[in-house]
Amino acid sequence: MFPRELLPIVLILVGLYVVVVGLSFWWARRIKREIKEKEQEIKHRLYEIAILKEIADRTGYSLNIQKILDVIAGSLRQFIEYSAASYMLLEPSKIVFKADLDRSVSPAFIKEIRGRMLGSLEALLGRELADMQIEETLTGAIMLEDMDEPVRSFFNIPLVIGDRLVGVLTVAHTKAGLYNEEEMAILYKIVSQASHAVTSLEDVVKAEQDKITAMLESMVEGVVMTDRDYHIVAVNPAAKAIIGETATGAPTIFDLAEKFKGVFDIKEKLEESIKLDKVLTLDGAAIGGKYYQVLVSPVRSNAGPMKGQTLGGVVIFHDITHEKEAERMRNDFTSMMVHELRSPLGNIKKIGELMRSSKVLEDKQASSEYVDMLYESSSVMLDLVNDLLDVSKLEAGKFEVAKQQENLKELITDRVKFFNTTAQGASISLASFTGEGVPDLVSIDPKRVTQVINNLLSNALNYTPKGGTVTVECFMHKQGVAIDDEAGHLGMPWVNDDPQKTTAALADSVVVAVTDTGEGISPENLEKLWNKFIQFVSSVRKGGDRKGTGLGLVIVKGIVEMHGGTVGVGSKVGVGSTFYFTLPL
Amino acid sequence: MEQIEQYKEIMTEVIAKQSVILGPDMAIMRARKVAEVEVSPEGKVIEIKGNPDQALQKLVDSYVELSGQIVKNALGSIFTKYPSLKPLD
Amino acid sequence: MAKKILIIDDDKIFSKILRDGLVAGGQGGYEVFAAFDGAQGFEIAEREKPNLIMLDLVMPDMGGIDFLKKLRAEDWGIDIPVIVETQLPDMKEISQGVELGVHGYFIKSDYSIDAILRQVGDVFK
To answer: Which end of chain C is less crowded, N or C, counting CB atoms within 10 A of the terminal residue's CB?
Structure first.
């Protein structure tokens, strides 16, 4: 057949052929293996991703570790075969043990798993857990005595969150060698990733909590938060101050209730608020000398899986003591105002009634007496009404001053003359001083400035005892020199109020002042001089001894400020007072 | 060669401890994947290939890679029994 | 026998009006005294033991209720009839007065002299 010479070539060719075929087989097998490996890898990755996604979907942003474990254990069923998937969760007072059976096993099997899981936890914690109470729940297939297969495959996956061990997840099977290393490693990885996610989440939550705590700490309002069982979960420093000293240092709901005893039942209000899902407002709760507005509101979760659920309640204390005081002052003012107007009016009416009798009309002395009383009552009323109107206008910003060029010096002289008789009657010497350079004409509303000087002069005369002196002063103020110094230079009597020499900053102006040697005013009362409420009320309370309506100074201030000037007062108890005002040039 | 024997012992103990912690299947599977040691199917270290120190390190790292630092902390008690061996970092 | 009526009120004009009204309306049957504050009122009450006190509730220093408490603390003061007068009906004060035992009250600016006379007449019936 073949020529003998070609035999070696044929053999080589056959050999090559065999080699090539062999190689290709080998290659093919290798590629197949590579493909299979790749397939496995992809399958594993998909498995991993699928479980993680399921966990994310089903737990949302929950930090509830048990829930996460439930989800992981629950999802395992789709990916691997097991007899039992279980977990143990470490809680402060107990261990939660949940096992899901995919197929029936014996009680001994469960006992075995339990023991091994405890062993794992003990090894990791470095301490015994024998005395811990175990709360056991079994789901899925039932236990059967006769399913007497032991544990042959067993995987423990520790669950660590934020550096602390919280539990362990376990997969167990009656069959051996079912699982390979790669598949199980993925499971460990998944649990680890879930733990990291929770840890990060915990960090975020802690950061947010810290922010809230910082905010609560700095709040002026007292804030107390309770859980659904009315245990206090948060109390800020302001609230602690309101509640006061407590037995343990950390106020409880009882301390709070005790503090508000008689005012309102705080637990009842919390219940009501949560039940009706409404914010309740309690006004004017008086506690320990202060007034509070108290708000009670339910606290609901507004995001995440627990959205809409009521978490507890919050009580907020708003100190309204000042507002209440102001309200009281306003009420006092109003009721006194009414009283002061009704009295003279009522009297006038009664005098009318009395004068109807012919007997009275014929009695000349009685008639004349009643007419005097009519005059006095109506004057009193008119003064009050006028002052009240002026004050209202000032407050509404509707007070007008009609400025024109007037001779201020003459106006002052006129006023001094007017009050001379009164001064003499009270044995008080009334003097007047005018400095140099005061212009003849100053831009003022003569009627209103007269009102001002009248008020200051009559006050001075009323509060100065017999033998005292009242001086009316008028001089120029130059910016840069303090007014009291300027008065000093001119040798005018002056009671100083201005150690800081702030009046030096005032612009050039005319100064008009009334200095008396009267009782003087104490520093606390000095501040109250310009407060209409305080002055009016105290004036009314003085009763028959009172002088004027009490609103005079308030109106003086208003008139002067409408002229663009400033008012000031210096006083020393037992020495006297200087009331002054400036008028811009 | 006493050192080597000690290393073998300690590594066997490590595998034993991890068997309790992670379960015997995983503990042994991981150990057998470590190239520097030869481990029996029962989890006993038969042979150490190369630097024993490195081998021990690799073994422990393999577990840490799986479940984190916490499994390493649990080994502390084992190392106190072998004071002559260099402590792991 | 003339009935003694003591008026305690810090409003001098009202006091005068009331006194004149009582004297004229009582046709000689009423002897009227006036005090302008609680302390003075107590002095006169102790001295004269009036048959009726007409008491203003709102007064500086010793107010009406304070005077009433002091009066009722005395043996001779327990039974003296009191009519309180006020400008504004302050229910709190009026109820305090009722507790301390008053025969009635009237609003100063609302009641006419005739109406007040009738009230006084009722006390003496």
So the answer is: C
- State pLDDT tens for residues A418-444: 999 989 998 999 999 998 889 999 999
Q: What does the DSSP assignment read for A419-465?
A: HHHHHHHTT-EEEEEE-TT--S-EEE-HHHHHHHHHHHHHHHHHHS-
Smallest CA–CA distance, residue B42 to chain A, in Å, is: 13
User: What does the alpha-carbon distance between residue A72 and residue A489 come to, in Å, rounded to a whole number?
Assistant: 94
From the CB of residue A396, how many other CB atoms can be counted at a distance below 10 Å?
8
Phi-psi region of C49 (alpha: psi -120 to 50; beta: other; left: phi over 0): left
Distance CA A485, CA A503 (A): 10
- The number of residues in chain A equals 585
Q: Which CATH number applies to C3-124?
A: 3.40.50.2300
DSSP category for residue C71: H
Give a three-class secondary structure readout of A305-355: CCCCCEEEEEEEEEECHHHHHHHHHHHHHHHHHHHHHHHHHHHHHHHHHHH
- Is residue A585 within 8 A of residue A437, CB to CB? The reply is no
Residues of A within an 8 Å Cβ radius of C: 335, 338-339, 342-347, 349-351, 353-354, 357, 359-360, 366, 373, 376-377, 541-545
Within a domain: A533: yes
Distance separating alpha carbons of residues A483 and A493, to the nearest angstrom? 12
Sequence spans of domains, chain B: 2-79
Residues belonging to chain A with any Cβ–Cβ distance to chain B shorter than 8 Å: 116, 119-120, 123-124, 126, 153-158, 160, 165, 170, 179-181, 184-185, 188-189, 192
Are B and C close enough to touch, i.e. 3+ CB pairs under 8 angstroms?
no
Q: Rounded to an integer, what distance in angstroms lies between the CA atom of residue A240 and that of residue A243?
A: 5
Res A132: pLDDT: 83
Query: pTM for the full model?
Result: 0.58
Tell me what ipTM this predicted complex has: 0.91
Nearest to A242 by CA among A181, A331, A317: A317
Could you tell me the CATH number of the domain that includes residue A223? 3.30.450.20
Residue with tokens 């230079």: A489
Q: Does B80 touch chain A (CB under 8 A)?
A: no
Tens digits of residue pLDDT in B43-68:
888 888 888 888 888 888 888 888 88
| Distance from C-alpha of A482 to C-alpha of C69, rounded to nearest angstrom | 56
> Containing domain of residue A409, as a range?
400-584
Q: Would you call B26 an interface residue with chain A, using a CB distance cutoff of 8 Å? A: yes
Bridge partners for A97 per DSSP = A88, A136
